[in-house]
Amino acid sequence: MSGSGLPDDLGAALHAFATLPRIVVASDFDGCLAPIVSHPADARADPRALAALVELTAAPDTTTAVVSGRARTDLAGLVALSEVAGVDDLTLIGSHGTEFDDDFSSGITDEEKELLARLQAQLDAIAARFPGAMVETKPASTVLHVRNVATATDAEEALELARGGPAALPGVHATEGKAVLELAVIETGKGHALDVLRAQTNADGVCYLGDDVTDEHAFTHLQDGNDVSIKVGDGDTVARYRITGPELVGEVLRVLAAARTGS
Ligand SMILES: [Mg+2]
Fold first, then answer.
1. Confidence check: pLDDT of 18 > 60
2. What's the pTM value of the predicted model, to 2 decimals?
3. What range defines the domain where residue 134 resides?
4. Please, which residues have CB less than 5 A from ligand 1, an ion?
5. Number of domain units in the chain
């Protein structure tokens, strides 16, 4: 451990990363920039972490992004609540890498819109059979939530019907979560989002922080060499580095910002 609280090898990796010509720095929101809370609507970003990300955004040849499973409008509302100057400039990517900007929904084809409507109708029909089940619709995906279904057996049966039905249709990208099944009509995944950012900016390296199962998809898209993958908290991971929890995310971003801007 260094004085910063970060593992020494991570500190060295961050300093080397900050010297690359063009970089992308991206982080998950819940459990990383914002500590986990019981009610998702109560999540608030750590202002110091967000301020460091804003500072990085202003640095030359540096692209930053917040990549979340939340719908992008939801994410934008929570980030705006932080009242940190400059947060409006942050790139926000919602729905596990499927929503890149506000009018994303206009970017899906008519065929994909039809498929989305069909998926929604099928999930609605499944949800109607299991009291407590709920269907959420996002611009390019629809989600079956079974957390509030009375018994675990019923919840699993609802998910199983969705897996064997709408999830199996051609062109559907299914993502499993805890008591949740998300069906997207375009290629999805946080790793895909990082690929897009890397390609768009011609970056020499990507640094990503994540705490959840869906972040493992992002980590698998990072490469040995210049990229820096950081698992936040406990649990199995393919990430190369680990920090103990969200309280150190701000420190990672501050080290990067200081090294990148010479501040
Ligand atoms: Mg998370």
1. yes
2. 0.77
3. 109-184
4. 28, 30-31, 211-212
5. 2
